[in-house]
Design goal:
By secondary structure, the chain is of the alpha/beta class. It folds into two domains: 260 residues, TIM Barrel (Alpha-Beta Barrel), CATH 3.20.20; 94 residues, no CATH class. Helices cover 43% and strands 19% of the residues. The strands form four sheets. It has an eight-stranded parallel sheet with strand order 4-14-13-12-11-10-6-5. Strands 1-2-3 form a three-stranded antiparallel sheet, covered by helices on one side. Strands 7-8-9 form a three-stranded antiparallel sheet. α8 packs parallel to α9. The radius of gyration is 20 Å and the shape is globular. The mean pLDDT is 95. The structure holds zinc ion. The site of zinc ion has 8 residues, from α12 and α14.
Length: 374
């Protein structure tokens, strides 16, 4: 039986339910990033209250601190963090890349950011670690490539990603935990096709599109997504990693992507930017001084119910952590409303009209994801 039940389609877009060990969740789905177990500055209870059903935590950080064994003895990630919902751990591939690890056929070797010691992570280690952490979804270990890179490097990394995916699949033993494979290949459509064929031939519970939203143009991102989605099996979930930009999220949903995660909504919040239906808003701006109105009149989040733009403006100048907490909560509410609107539009057959609305606001401003962990 498939883990994904597609109940509605609109063009290539689809909506339904994804069955996970801890919860059945609605798709398309946005997953906030809780790098070290919780979303920075925001209690998990409030994230769940907004309606989010899945959180992403970071294997790389959790394996170093507090350690996968410790999380296992605490009953696994969901019990440890107290989040009432499901969870996903990334494999560490992205962090390995961004920290400049030495990649060999065997695995990756990198410095522990906490104490400087050398750590080796093989695909087999990544599986053991993620099974101990015990999220509902684990990710195969992949080799992420910085863009742009010479084609020889892309090809070499793609070959390794295929080999590591196979070793990850073979080493994964917990049947109640789903394992997703990751397609790489940069923005080269031939390499994307090749990687899609390799990863789907191994067979996973779901398929992620990795290595995008790393600085390439939106057109290139969507072209790569289109190429990969064409080669993925319809009955398995498709997950575009690291994308939260409203424009990309909406257009990738229209291409048939079911899942997204991104640090951007909360990261830009900590830097004083709110996501609104009029586009990004810098609360520090003088236009917000003394304004006795919420960030958005039609937002039902706790912040917009109680807090004025004038207060947020004041805090953004003198207490950035408090401002960051409040803006994070609002931006997550914005992101939840966006994915909910997309889901509803698929069910009503109106996604094209919604894309036109989203393009009007988000056609120009770009919300960059930057690094994929907070
Ligand atoms: Zn709000």
């Amino acid at each position: 039986m498939s883990n994904l039940l597609v109940t509605h389609t609109d063009g290539s877009a689809r909506s339904g339910q994804l069955h996970l060990r801890s919860a059945t969740v609605e798709t398309p789905l946005f997953i906030p990033v809780a790098t070290r177990g919780i979303v920075r500055y925001v209690p998990s209870e409030l994230v769940a209250d907004l309606g989010f059903q899945v959180l992403l935590s970071n294997t790389y950080h959790l394996m170093l601190r507090p350690g996968a064994e410790l999380i296992a003895t605490m009953g696994g990630l969901n019990a440890f963090t107290g989040f009432r919902g499901a969870s996903l751990t990334d494999s560490g591939g992205f962090q390995i890349m961004s920290l400049g690890a030495k990649i060999t056929d065997e695995g990756a070797r990198f410095r522990n950011v906490y104490d400087g010691s050398w750590v080796t992570l093989t695909p087999e280690d990544a599986m053991t670690t993620q099974e101990q952490i015990g999220a509902d979804i684990a990710m195969a270990l992949d080799v992420c490539t910085q863009l742009p890179s010479p084609e020889a490097v892309l090809r070499q990394n793609l070959m390794l990603t295929g080999q590591w995916a196979e070793r990850s699949r073979a080493a994964h033993t917990d049947d109640t935990q789903q394992l997703f494979g990751i397609v790489q290949g940069g923005v080269d459509s031939e390499l994307r096709k090749q990687s899609t064929a390799t990863i789907t031939a191994i067979g996973f519970d779901g398929y992620a599109i990795g290595g995008l939203a790393v600085g390439e143009s939106r057109e290139n991102t969507l072209e790569a997504v289109r190429t990969v989605v064409e080669g993925l099996p319809a009955e398995r979930p498709r997950y575009l990693m690291g994308v939260g930009d409203p424009y990309l999220l909406a257009h990738a949903t229209a291409l048939g992507v079911d899942m997204f995660d991104c640090v951007a909504p909360t990261r830009i919040a900590r830097h004083g930017t709110a996501l609104t239906n009029q586009g990004p808003l810098r609360v520090k701006g003088l236009a917000n001084r003394g304004v006795d109105e919420p960030l958005e009149l039609d937002c039902n989040c706790r912040v917009c119910q109680r807090v004025s733009r004038g207060l947020l403006h004041h805090l953004a100048h003198v207490d950035t952590e408090s401002a960051g907490t409040l803006l994070s909560l609002h931006n997550l509410a914005f992101q939840f409303r966006l994915i909910t609107r997309l889901r509803r539009s698929i069910r009503e057959g109106t996604i094209k009209a919604l894309l036109v609305d989203i393009d009007k606001v988000w056609g120009t401003p770009v919300i960059r994801s930057g690094s994929h962990a907070d």
